[in-house]
Design a protein that fits this description.
Elements: E1 6-15, E2 18-28, E3 33-37, H1 44-51, E4 59-64, E5 67-68, H2 73-77, E6 80-83, H3 95-105, H4 113-121, H5 134-146, E7 152-156, H6 164-179, E8 183-188, H7 191-197, E9 200-205, E10 208-214, H8 215-219, E11 221-228, H9 244-248, E12 251-257, H10 260-267, E13 272-279, H11 283-290
Parallel strand pairs: 3-8, 3-9, 6-7, 7-8
Antiparallel strand pairs: 1-2, 1-4, 4-5, 9-10, 11-12, 11-13
Helix pairs in contact: 3-5
Length: 291
């Protein structure tokens, strides 16, 4: 496995007696997409701001490409494109001028890829930002983040104000960034988004990392729900005990990891009246920590 491009070690942030982030250990390697998942107040934005050097950690540290995100913040940020959760843009500029301005700050000159990506995002980049809706402004900001060829992309709630079609387009762009070898770290509270694009998901609760989930392992699982016409078996196809409350109500609810033919053969021998089999997904895991 590649060396981490982003590495957080015991990253902690206190505001007086309030601990906003507690001892976060997390790394992201090139070509990997990692999602920070949790509701508002779980510490997602605080973690991202510490990693960008916008906040000084109370203890611990974060590094990007070996540069300390606080002590060497300028060098660290040269390697990052960042989309904040709350936008503050130069409304007097057009979208094209804003992208060019931000590119010039990096010592780069935007090429034809700007127009190609603007077409995919369905925005008129020659229109002044002051005449754009909040959704259009967010798409311009995404354009400015996706155009630079930087090692790391950090996005804070990137799909806010985007319609479903543009959300799907953004996820496709993140997959393309991964294919180019870029690392992506983004925060979200939308399970579908992180399930679709992430290689790993970190679940935060009240500033603590409570679960780190590789998505490959999760995608191998299948959630099974069935309504029965007869007595429910005591165990599932892998001999795991089934939920007693569901059995008493004439139902089966369990997760199965293994070959699909084994599951189907076992189900064919049960008194099944109604059946749903679907990918396991993050829902049960998220519910465990956040209800």
């Amino acid at each position: 496995m590649s060396a981490p491009l982003l590495d957080a070690e015991n990253l902690t942030k206190d505001y007086g007696a309030f601990r906003a982030l507690a001892g976060l250990n997390l790394s992201v390697v090139p070509g990997e997409v990692v999602g920070l998942l949790g509701p508002n107040g779980s510490g997602k934005s605080t973690a991202l701001r510490l990693m960008l050097g916008f906040l000084r950690p109370t203890s611990g540290r974060a590094r990007i490409a070996g540069f300390d995100c606080w002590a060497d913040s300028v060098e660290a940020r040269k390697r990052v494109a960042y989309l904040p959760g709350e936008l503050r843009l130069y409304d007097s500029m057009t979208g094209r001028r804003l992208v060019a301005f931000l590119s010039h700050l990096r010592g780069a000159r935007p090429g034809p890829e700007v127009d190609a990506l603007a077409k995919k995002l369905d925005i008129d980049i020659d229109r002044p930002l002051t005449h754009m809706s909040s959704g259009m402004k967010r798409k311009v900001a995404l354009l400015a983040v996706l155009v630079p060829n930087v090692p790391l992309i950090i996005l804070d709630e990137p799909t806010n104000t985007l319609d479903p079609t543009m959300r799907d387009e953004l996820l496709d762009q993140l997959k393309a960034a991964k294919a180019r070898g870029q690392a992506v770290l983004f925060s979200s509270h939308v399970l579908h988004e992180v399930e679709t694009v992430c290689d790993r998901v970190a679940v935060l609760r009240r500033g603590e990392l409570v679960h780190l989930q590789p998505m490959d392992a999760l995608r191998e699982g299948r959630a099974v729900r069935a309504r029965l016409t007869g007595p429910a078996p005591a165990t599932g196809p892998d001999q795991t005990p089934l939920d007693a409350a569901a059995r008493a109500a004439g139902r089966m609810e369990f997760t199965f990891r293994g070959p699909l033919p084994v599951l189907l053969d076992w189900l064919a021998r049960q008194p099944v009246a109604d059946l749903v089999i679907e990918p396991q997904g993050l829902g049960p895991i998220y519910k465990k920590f956040h209800g």
